[in-house]
Amino acid sequence: MAEGSAKVPQISAVPSIPKDAPKKNIFSELFSGTKEAKPEQVKAIGAVTQQPSVHATAKTPAHNNPLSLTGTPPKKSKPGTLMLKVSLLVLVLTGGFFFSQNSTKFTFLGQNPAIKNQVAHEQEENLIIELLVEKHLSAVMQLEEFANFGGEYFYDLEQSKSSYVSENKKGEFKSALVKLKPVLNQILANLQNILDAGLDVEVMNKAGEKIDEEIAALKANGGDEQAVLADVQDLESARKLLRNTDFKNKIISLNAEAPTDEDYQSLLTAYNEINRSVTALIAEIKSGRTMWSEYWKEVEAVTKKIDPLFGTDFTGNLAVNSLAFSGQDSSISISGSTDTEDTKNFTLISNLLDAYESSTYFKDAVQRSFSKNESTDEENGSSSYSSSFEIKMTLESKQ
Amino acid sequence: MNERPKFIAGLIILLATLALGVWQWSETEALKLETSALNTEIANYSAEKAAIQEDNQALKVALTSIRGTSEQQLDSVFPTNEDITELTRLFDEFSVKNNFTNNAFFISNINYEAAAEATESAYRYVPFSIQLTASRKNLNKFIEYIETSGSLESGVRLMEIEDMRISYPSEDVAEYTAEFKLRAYFSQDV
């Protein structure tokens, strides 16, 4: 043991504090600025913390002693607090970063993926609407083409069947028909490709608004009046077509591979109902006309069934004197006479009435009074019987 | 607070942040993928729209020609006034073309009434009557002429038979006699 070795002080559990000493704690003592160490306290600290060295006496300068009461206490490491701070910081940074990427509300620093996505959705929606408008505009123009070629087709068809057109001309009309049919079929196929009858109301409304914008733009831009008027009319027809699901379904349901003349006619009729152009109006008037010639043919055909000699150069039992066709009450009056040798004039007239009634063209065929005359040929002594008839009936089916 | 709970809390937050990051990263990637797909769709729609617009331009040119021709034809078929004189000339022309010795057609009378307006003022018409004598063939031809009138191709004024009365030939009259009540249509007053 070294000479100067100090005696190891007795370690007591708790250093005793004099009763009269002021109440102070270790921190106030440490940071009080007192340079002079108190021996009792030094001893107490030394007893708890470490073995005091040989030099650890009151004589040792205070600043060399790590345990000096006037120095900065060593910092304790706090890993928990650090971890918490770091994790909170990472959370904030991560949250902030992804907010800047995935939120449409973050509009600084240009377009983030969320905004780009939103813009792309809006662009796609607008394009779909614009495409819909263009398709319906195309359909309107193709329908007008169809109406034009269809009118020509049916005129050529009528002429090719007419009894009053020369055979040469008939041949020309038939050739024209052959050329027109594939044109009509192609237009029909195009229409079926571009039209969609399954649009929902919201889409139709947006397309309608788009059409309104285009019409307003056309009118604002001005230019050639006739051209602008034609474009505006086409757009308005497109708007009508857009909402006319029944008509579109009619087109889509037609057999485009082998459409019949009835298919063409029904499409033309339906088109003329939605198109208010002058040609459509003309077509409407034409389709409302009564074809009296067809009823006349039927009257004669039925009469011929009762009397086969009717309409020939030979005298038969039945003769028609006059016919009156009335459009006002859709009626036909037939006046004529019968001439028999067996007195069965009334039977003949009754048969005629029944025959007209059973025809699909007529109904309510009636005659209320019958009268008969006898005339005798004095030369050969034969008798003949004559009776006149006045039959009135109404049209059953429109021709 | 003790360090250990703080550490655990920090660790949990860090793990949660990792999970959030992974989730949000997948959302970002999904957005980018969807945007890419949308851009492809947009390109397709744009191309389709351009193609339809080009077709529509060609259709417009074709229609302008059709509409121009139609306007001239419309004027004879559906004029803007009653044009009685042109109508009368039409019947005279038909008579001249079809009247032959063994196949007669003769119009003896034409009477025009005052023009009338249809319901909803969509169009107007002039009622008139015609009396004629004709062979059966020419009578049928005349009826067909009226019933097929109004085609732009034929250029014949749009007409309709309202009533007709036909008398068959008899011992006294060799031909058919007929009286027609007709309408000739024209456009509304603009």
Can you describe this structure?
The complex is a heterodimer of chains A (399) and B (190). Helices cover 55% and strands 10% of the residues of chain A. Chain A is an alpha+beta fold and 399 residues long. Chain A is rod-shaped. Chain A starts with 25 loop residues before the first helix and ends with a strand. Chain B has 190 residues and is an alpha+beta fold. Chain B is built from three helices and five strands, in the order ααβββαββ. The termini of chain B are far apart. β1 of chain A pairs antiparallel with β4 of chain B, so a sheet runs across the interface.
Distance between termini of chain A?
144 Å
> What Rg of chain A is obtained from the alpha carbons, in whole angstroms?
56 Å
Strand element count of chain A:
5
Distance between the termini of chain B: 94 Å
Q: Biggest interface: chains and residue counts? A: A-B, 71 and 77 residues
Quick one: how many beta strands of chain B? 5
Round the mean pLDDT of chain A to the nearest integer and report it: 82
Any idea what the shape of chain A is?
Answer: rod-shaped
Annotation keywords:
heterodimer; A: alpha+beta; five-stranded antiparallel beta sheet; 5 strands; rod-shaped; B: 190 residues; 3 helices
Brief rundown of the structure:
The complex is a heterodimer of chains A (399) and B (190). By secondary structure, chain A is of the alpha+beta class.
List strands and helices in order, with pairings.
The complex is a heterodimer of chains A (399) and B (190).
Chain A: H1 26-30, H2 39-48, H3 79-102, H4 113-161, H5 167-194, H6 201-221, H7 225-243, H8 245-253, H9 261-274, H10 278-288, H11 292-306, E1 318-326, E2 331-340, H12 345-358, E3 362-366, E4 373-376, E5 383-395
Antiparallel strand pairs in A: 1-2, 2-5, 3-5, 4-5
Helix pairs in contact in A: 4-5, 4-6, 4-7, 4-9, 5-8, 6-7, 9-10, 11-12
Chain B: H1 3-77, H2 84-98, E1 105-112, E2 116-117, E3 123-134, H3 136-147, E4 159-167, E5 176-187
Antiparallel strand pairs in B: 1-3, 2-3, 3-5, 4-5
